[in-house]
Amino acid sequence: MLDIQFIIENKEIVKKSIKDRNMKDVDLDNLEMLYKKRLELIKNIDEINRQRKIAANDRNAEEGRRLKEESSTKEDELTKTNQELTALLSVIPNITSPDMPIGKDESENKILKKVGEIKNFSFTPKPNWELGEDLDIIDSQRAAKVTGSRFSYIKGDLAKVQFAILQFVLEKVTDPSFISEIIDKNNLKIKKTPFIPIIPPIMIKPEALNAMGRLDPKEDKFFLQADSLYLVGSCEHSIGSMYMGESIKEENLPIRYVGYSTALRREAGSYGKDTRGMLRQHQFDKAEFEVFSTPETSREEHELLVALQEYLVSSLDLPYQLVANCTGDTALPNYSQKDIEIYMPGQKAYKETHSADYMTGYQARRMNTKVIREDGKKEILHTNDATAFAMGRILISIMENNQNEDGTIDVPIVLQKYCGIEKIKKTI
To answer: How many domains does the chain have?
Structure first.
């Protein structure tokens, strides 16, 4: 969440952010009133407690009881005020970066650049669902029989390629020399700390997901009623919340993680959209970056993540465009967001495959995660997250761009050493 003092002192900036995101207006005047009421109640309680000590020293039992009752009443009022204040603060979005395009939805995102050539096929390229069925490497029909729609079995050579992609990512981003090279190439003035591999839980408490600012929309998430746990829609949810209530020494920042887990989404708002193939599934595997850093370096950490994404996609020789998300196509915690969209010839369109989210201190303040400065002072740190690869989406990008007329699919050269095959062929 935003710092309440910042909100009070910058009401117009906050109001503009809310308006630009096409969100319901928030009563900022009521927020300020509750904040002042809270300060006054704390002052009153402190004074009552001072008087109680005097009454105790004077052995004035009657006055002590009266003050105790008054203190209890004020404490209850303070609890209620804090709850109302927190509820208001939790729906106020992060402010948006000055360079974020203003727009109502993804149609008004800004294309920053296009990279790579769109391949000219001597035949009509097929969409991924046809390729998957022809080669028997994706089986959605049997998955529907066993589990339901928007699930798939990934089989044979395609499964090998998925594990190859993961090995490729891990080999690169855990290598200090590679990270150093990317940082130098992009003229970044940040530490050359490699990424730490992590396999996080795929279940998360509601309060942790809410602290991340990712609880809403609830209808898009799977909830285990009996256990009061959500299934994560992306592994940064359980990585980003792991330091809730903790403070990290400045000398230990940045902390850079590359996580891998299954992700689950109900896709409640996408009825009738991308129903065929693996672009929009209820279950998919994902490699994700999460970074904890000082406020001074967080913008360059965001730039590092985007540079890594571009390197990884370019290494697979896939044509893509880098997009700056507009105000109407970014989540509550995001100060800035960039997406990568890869061209899918079977669908004749660019499709979003990667996101890079820069949250400043918005998430960390909700989680009470701080940096301990060298002088001992504590302040809110900053967070970033970004997609390394959403496996289903990158697999179908490879399938559609690397398909051959004979029905086989070329495996990107950089992946061949990890999976031991040059072409994806029929399983049986």
So the answer is: 2
> What is the predicted pLDDT for the residue at 25?
85
Q: 64 pLDDT exceeds 90?
A: no
Same domain, yes or no: 81 and 127: no
Q: Which residue has the higher pLDDT, 68 or 181?
A: 181
What values do phi and psi take at 409, rounded to 5? -130, 130
| Spatial strand order in the sheet of 370-372 | 247-249, 370-372, 378-380
State the DSSP H helix or E strand holding residue 396, giving kind and residue range, or none if neither: helix 391-401
Q: Which domain holds residue 327?
A: 106-424
Would you tell me how many other CB atoms lie within 10 Å of the CB of residue 353?
23
> Quick check: 272 pLDDT over 80?
no
Are both 112 and 225 inside the same structural domain? yes
Q: Provide the strand spans (E) within 60-143.
A: 110-115, 138-139
Q: CA 75, 79, 82 angle in degrees (round to 5)?
A: 135
Q: Is residue 383 within 8 Å of residue 364, measured between CB atoms?
A: yes
Average of per-residue pLDDT across 395-413: 97
Instruction: Read off the tokens for 168.
Output: 């490729």
Residue 158 vs residues 47, 81, 286, 392, 413: alpha-carbon distances, Å = 69, 55, 15, 10, 15
Whether this prediction's pTM lies above 0.85 is answered by yes
Q: Which residue type does 398 have?
A: I
Q: Look up residue 384 and give its two tokens.
A: 């970033």
Select from 55, 90, 125 the last residue of a domain. Answer: 90
Local structure of residue 174 (DSSP, 8 states): T
Q: Using CA atoms, how far apart are residues 67 and 48, in angstroms rounded to an integer?
A: 6
> Do residues 131 and 18 both lie within one domain?
no
Instruction: Report which secondary-structure segment, H or E, holds 328.
Output: none
CA dist 111 and 101 (Å) reads 10
